[in-house]
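C-alpha coordinates as discussed.
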Protein backbone atom coordinates (compact mmCIF):
# COMPACT_ATOMS: atom_id res chain seq x y z
CA UNK A 1 0.00 0.00 0.00
CA UNK A 2 1.45 3.39 -0.97
CA UNK A 3 2.25 5.58 2.02
CA UNK A 4 0.35 8.80 2.31
CA UNK A 5 2.20 11.91 3.37
CA UNK A 6 0.54 14.06 6.02
CA UNK A 7 -0.51 17.42 4.68
CA UNK A 8 1.15 20.36 6.35
CA UNK A 9 -1.01 22.79 8.25
CA UNK A 10 -1.13 26.45 7.28
CA UNK A 11 1.12 27.38 10.21
CA UNK A 12 3.62 24.66 9.28
CA UNK A 13 3.72 25.83 5.65
CA UNK A 14 4.27 29.41 6.75
CA UNK A 15 7.08 28.35 9.11
CA UNK A 16 8.70 26.37 6.30
CA UNK A 17 8.44 29.33 3.92
CA UNK A 18 9.93 31.65 6.54
CA UNK A 19 12.83 29.27 7.17
CA UNK A 20 13.64 29.04 3.45
CA UNK A 21 13.50 32.82 3.11
CA UNK A 22 15.89 33.23 6.04
CA UNK A 23 18.31 30.70 4.53
CA UNK A 24 18.22 32.53 1.22
CA UNK A 25 18.58 35.91 2.91
CA UNK A 26 21.67 34.73 4.79
CA UNK A 27 23.34 33.83 1.48
CA UNK A 28 22.33 37.00 -0.36
CA UNK A 29 23.28 39.33 2.52
CA UNK A 30 26.67 37.61 2.79
CA UNK A 31 27.30 37.99 -0.93
CA UNK A 32 25.89 41.49 -1.54
CA UNK A 33 25.93 43.21 1.82
CA UNK A 34 22.87 44.74 3.42
CA UNK A 35 22.45 47.79 1.19
CA UNK A 36 23.02 46.04 -2.14
CA UNK A 37 20.88 42.99 -1.35
CA UNK A 38 17.35 43.04 -2.76
CA UNK A 39 14.20 41.31 -1.58
CA UNK A 40 13.53 40.20 -5.16
CA UNK A 41 16.77 38.25 -5.30
CA UNK A 42 16.10 36.73 -1.87
CA UNK A 43 12.65 35.60 -3.03
CA UNK A 44 14.09 34.01 -6.18
CA UNK A 45 16.82 32.23 -4.23
CA UNK A 46 14.19 30.83 -1.88
CA UNK A 47 11.94 29.79 -4.78
CA UNK A 48 9.07 32.14 -3.95
CA UNK A 49 7.50 35.29 -5.29
CA UNK A 50 8.10 38.67 -3.70
CA UNK A 51 4.66 38.35 -2.13
CA UNK A 52 5.92 35.50 0.06
CA UNK A 53 8.58 37.81 1.42
CA UNK A 54 6.14 40.57 2.34
CA UNK A 55 3.71 38.13 3.88
CA UNK A 56 6.41 37.19 6.40
CA UNK A 57 8.49 40.36 6.77
CA UNK A 58 7.56 44.03 6.58
CA UNK A 59 10.85 45.15 5.05
CA UNK A 60 14.42 44.20 4.31
CA UNK A 61 15.35 45.53 7.73
CA UNK A 62 12.81 43.27 9.43
CA UNK A 63 14.15 40.31 7.48
CA UNK A 64 17.69 41.08 8.60
CA UNK A 65 16.55 41.51 12.22
CA UNK A 66 14.93 38.07 12.15
CA UNK A 67 18.16 36.62 10.80
CA UNK A 68 20.21 38.49 13.38
CA UNK A 69 17.93 37.27 16.18
CA UNK A 70 18.68 33.67 15.22
CA UNK A 71 22.39 34.48 15.16
CA UNK A 72 22.21 36.02 18.66
CA UNK A 73 20.34 33.02 20.05
CA UNK A 74 22.94 30.58 18.68
CA UNK A 75 25.89 32.64 19.88
CA UNK A 76 24.49 33.20 23.39
CA UNK A 77 23.70 29.48 23.70
CA UNK A 78 27.31 28.64 22.73
CA UNK A 79 28.80 31.21 25.11
CA UNK A 80 26.76 29.98 28.07
CA UNK A 81 27.66 26.36 27.32
CA UNK A 82 31.37 27.16 27.09
CA UNK A 83 31.25 29.20 30.29
CA UNK A 84 29.51 26.39 32.17
CA UNK A 85 31.99 23.83 30.83
CA UNK A 86 35.05 25.72 32.12
CA UNK A 87 36.67 24.22 35.21
CA UNK A 88 38.45 27.45 36.12
CA UNK A 89 37.66 31.13 35.72
CA UNK A 90 40.45 31.36 33.15
CA UNK A 91 38.82 28.63 31.03
CA UNK A 92 35.38 30.19 31.49
CA UNK A 93 36.65 33.60 30.38
CA UNK A 94 38.53 32.29 27.36
CA UNK A 95 35.87 29.87 26.10
CA UNK A 96 33.36 32.37 24.72
CA UNK A 97 36.03 34.88 23.68
CA UNK A 98 37.92 32.30 21.63
CA UNK A 99 34.61 31.14 20.14
CA UNK A 100 33.90 34.70 18.91
CA UNK A 101 37.31 34.96 17.26
CA UNK A 102 36.81 31.61 15.53
CA UNK A 103 33.39 32.71 14.34
CA UNK A 104 34.88 35.81 12.73
CA UNK A 105 37.37 33.62 10.87
CA UNK A 106 34.74 31.09 9.80
CA UNK A 107 32.23 33.79 8.71
CA UNK A 108 34.31 36.66 7.32
CA UNK A 109 31.25 38.33 5.76
CA UNK A 110 29.32 38.58 9.02
CA UNK A 111 30.92 41.57 10.74
CA UNK A 112 30.96 43.89 7.69
CA UNK A 113 27.27 43.05 7.28
CA UNK A 114 26.69 43.77 10.96
CA UNK A 115 28.33 47.18 10.60
CA UNK A 116 26.25 48.00 7.53
CA UNK A 117 23.01 47.25 9.29
CA UNK A 118 24.10 49.08 12.47
CA UNK A 119 24.72 52.21 10.38
CA UNK A 120 21.30 51.83 8.74
CA UNK A 121 19.48 51.17 12.01
CA UNK A 122 21.08 54.19 13.68
CA UNK A 123 19.13 56.44 11.30
CA UNK A 124 15.74 54.83 11.90
CA UNK A 125 14.39 55.00 15.49
CA UNK A 126 12.12 51.95 15.17
CA UNK A 127 14.87 49.85 13.64
CA UNK A 128 17.42 51.14 16.14
CA UNK A 129 15.24 50.11 19.10
CA UNK A 130 14.66 46.65 17.65
CA UNK A 131 18.37 46.24 16.95
CA UNK A 132 19.28 47.38 20.49
CA UNK A 133 16.84 44.87 21.99
CA UNK A 134 18.57 42.02 20.20
CA UNK A 135 22.02 43.26 21.15
CA UNK A 136 20.74 43.39 24.72
CA UNK A 137 20.70 39.58 24.78
CA UNK A 138 24.50 39.60 24.43
CA UNK A 139 24.91 42.16 27.21
CA UNK A 140 22.56 40.23 29.50
CA UNK A 141 24.45 36.98 28.88
CA UNK A 142 27.81 38.60 29.65
CA UNK A 143 26.39 40.26 32.77
CA UNK A 144 25.13 36.87 33.98
CA UNK A 145 28.56 35.31 33.44
CA UNK A 146 30.24 38.13 35.36
CA UNK A 147 27.79 37.76 38.25
CA UNK A 148 28.38 34.01 38.42
CA UNK A 149 32.14 34.51 38.23
CA UNK A 150 32.01 37.05 41.06
CA UNK A 151 29.82 34.73 43.13
CA UNK A 152 32.33 31.89 42.65
CA UNK A 153 34.97 34.24 44.06
CA UNK A 154 32.77 35.07 47.04
CA UNK A 155 32.18 38.64 45.87
CA UNK A 156 28.96 40.62 45.79
CA UNK A 157 29.06 43.25 43.06
CA UNK A 158 27.32 46.62 43.52
CA UNK A 159 23.89 46.99 41.97
CA UNK A 160 24.10 47.46 38.21
CA UNK A 161 27.85 46.75 38.05
CA UNK A 162 27.44 43.43 36.22
CA UNK A 163 25.16 45.04 33.61
CA UNK A 164 27.66 47.83 32.98
CA UNK A 165 30.53 45.38 32.72
CA UNK A 166 28.41 43.32 30.29
CA UNK A 167 28.22 46.37 28.04
CA UNK A 168 32.00 46.77 28.26
CA UNK A 169 32.67 43.11 27.37
CA UNK A 170 30.28 43.29 24.40
CA UNK A 171 31.86 46.53 23.19
CA UNK A 172 35.33 45.03 23.60
CA UNK A 173 34.40 42.03 21.45
CA UNK A 174 32.96 44.24 18.71
CA UNK A 175 35.89 46.66 18.93
CA UNK A 176 38.42 43.87 18.48
CA UNK A 177 36.37 42.54 15.57
CA UNK A 178 36.59 45.97 13.94
CA UNK A 179 40.35 46.15 14.50
CA UNK A 180 40.71 42.62 13.11
CA UNK A 181 38.69 43.60 10.05
CA UNK A 182 41.09 46.47 9.31
CA UNK A 183 44.29 44.60 10.23
CA UNK A 184 43.95 40.87 11.03
CA UNK A 185 47.57 40.66 12.20
CA UNK A 186 46.99 43.30 14.89
CA UNK A 187 44.50 41.12 16.80
CA UNK A 188 45.85 37.67 17.72
CA UNK A 189 43.29 34.90 18.17
CA UNK A 190 43.91 34.70 21.91
CA UNK A 191 43.83 38.46 22.65
CA UNK A 192 40.14 38.73 23.58
CA UNK A 193 40.36 35.68 25.84
CA UNK A 194 43.54 36.94 27.48
CA UNK A 195 41.94 40.30 28.30
CA UNK A 196 38.84 38.65 29.80
CA UNK A 197 40.99 36.20 31.77
CA UNK A 198 42.98 39.15 33.11
CA UNK A 199 39.73 40.87 34.08
CA UNK A 200 38.47 37.85 36.04
CA UNK A 201 41.93 37.44 37.59
CA UNK A 202 41.80 41.05 38.80
CA UNK A 203 38.27 40.49 40.09
CA UNK A 204 39.47 37.46 42.03
CA UNK A 205 42.42 39.38 43.46
CA UNK A 206 40.11 42.19 44.56
CA UNK A 207 37.87 39.66 46.28
CA UNK A 208 40.83 38.13 48.12
CA UNK A 209 42.10 41.53 49.23
CA UNK A 210 38.69 42.63 50.44
CA UNK A 211 38.16 39.41 52.33
CA UNK A 212 41.61 39.51 53.86
CA UNK A 213 41.64 43.15 54.88
CA UNK A 214 38.08 43.19 56.16
CA UNK A 215 38.74 40.21 58.39
CA UNK A 216 41.59 39.33 60.68
CA UNK A 217 44.00 42.18 59.84
CA UNK A 218 41.64 45.01 60.65
CA UNK A 219 40.29 43.18 63.71
CA UNK A 220 43.77 42.65 65.11
CA UNK A 221 44.77 46.22 64.36
CA UNK A 222 41.64 47.64 65.96
CA UNK A 223 42.13 45.55 69.11
CA UNK A 224 45.75 46.58 69.41
CA UNK A 225 44.98 50.25 68.91
CA UNK A 226 42.11 50.23 71.41
CA UNK A 227 44.31 48.46 73.96
CA UNK A 228 47.13 50.97 73.62
CA UNK A 229 44.81 53.97 73.88
CA UNK A 230 43.10 52.40 76.90
CA UNK A 231 46.46 51.94 78.64
CA UNK A 232 47.33 55.56 77.88
CA UNK A 233 44.05 56.81 79.33
CA UNK A 234 43.97 54.86 82.63
CA UNK A 235 47.36 55.93 83.89
CA UNK A 236 47.88 59.64 83.36
CA UNK A 237 51.11 59.37 85.38
CA UNK A 238 52.82 57.86 82.34
CA UNK A 239 54.72 60.49 80.46
CA UNK A 240 52.84 61.40 77.29
CA UNK A 241 55.93 60.98 75.15
CA UNK A 242 56.42 57.46 76.49
CA UNK A 243 52.74 56.54 76.02
CA UNK A 244 52.63 57.84 72.49
CA UNK A 245 55.83 55.98 71.72
CA UNK A 246 54.08 52.72 72.50
CA UNK A 247 51.02 53.78 70.57
CA UNK A 248 53.18 54.48 67.52
CA UNK A 249 54.91 51.12 67.91
CA UNK A 250 51.56 49.36 67.90
CA UNK A 251 50.41 51.33 64.89
CA UNK A 252 53.66 50.44 63.12
CA UNK A 253 53.03 46.75 63.76
CA UNK A 254 49.48 47.16 62.41
CA UNK A 255 50.75 48.81 59.21
CA UNK A 256 53.50 46.22 58.76
CA UNK A 257 51.02 43.35 59.24
CA UNK A 258 48.58 44.91 56.77
CA UNK A 259 51.29 45.44 54.14
CA UNK A 260 52.61 41.90 54.58
CA UNK A 261 49.03 40.65 54.37
CA UNK A 262 48.45 42.43 51.06
CA UNK A 263 51.74 41.22 49.61
CA UNK A 264 50.90 37.64 50.58
CA UNK A 265 47.61 37.92 48.71
CA UNK A 266 48.97 39.71 45.62
CA UNK A 267 52.17 37.76 45.02
CA UNK A 268 51.51 34.41 46.67
CA UNK A 269 47.70 34.25 46.34
CA UNK A 270 47.77 32.57 49.75
CA UNK A 271 44.95 33.51 52.11
CA UNK A 272 46.22 31.06 54.75
CA UNK A 273 49.58 32.87 54.90
CA UNK A 274 47.78 36.22 54.99
CA UNK A 275 45.74 35.02 57.95
CA UNK A 276 48.89 33.78 59.72
CA UNK A 277 50.47 37.21 59.25
CA UNK A 278 47.36 38.85 60.71
CA UNK A 279 47.44 36.56 63.76
CA UNK A 280 51.16 37.20 64.20
CA UNK A 281 50.53 40.93 64.13
CA UNK A 282 47.82 40.55 66.73
CA UNK A 283 50.11 38.50 69.00
CA UNK A 284 52.83 41.15 68.78
CA UNK A 285 50.30 43.87 69.55
CA UNK A 286 49.04 41.87 72.51
CA UNK A 287 52.54 41.35 73.89
CA UNK A 288 53.55 44.99 73.55
CA UNK A 289 50.16 46.19 74.83
CA UNK A 290 50.57 43.97 77.90
CA UNK A 291 54.01 45.38 78.55
CA UNK A 292 52.57 48.87 78.33
CA UNK A 293 49.85 48.01 80.85
CA UNK A 294 52.41 46.48 83.22
CA UNK A 295 54.65 49.49 82.95
CA UNK A 296 51.65 51.68 83.70
CA UNK A 297 51.01 49.62 86.83
CA UNK A 298 47.59 48.46 85.63
CA UNK A 299 48.64 44.80 85.36
CA UNK A 300 50.58 43.09 88.13
CA UNK A 301 54.19 42.29 87.44
CA UNK A 302 55.09 38.69 88.23
CA UNK A 303 57.55 38.53 91.05
CA UNK A 304 60.76 36.77 90.20
CA UNK A 305 62.12 34.16 92.60
CA UNK A 306 65.72 33.24 92.93
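Sequence:
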Amino acid sequence: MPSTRRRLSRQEKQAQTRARLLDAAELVFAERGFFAASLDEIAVRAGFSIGAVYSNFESKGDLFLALFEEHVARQVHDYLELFAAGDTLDEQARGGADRWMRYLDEHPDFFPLFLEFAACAAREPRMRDAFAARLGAFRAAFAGMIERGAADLGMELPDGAADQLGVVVNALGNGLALERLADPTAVPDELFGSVLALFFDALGLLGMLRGSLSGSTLTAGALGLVGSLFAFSIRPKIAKAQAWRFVLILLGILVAAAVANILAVIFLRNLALAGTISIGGFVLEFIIGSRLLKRAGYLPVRATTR
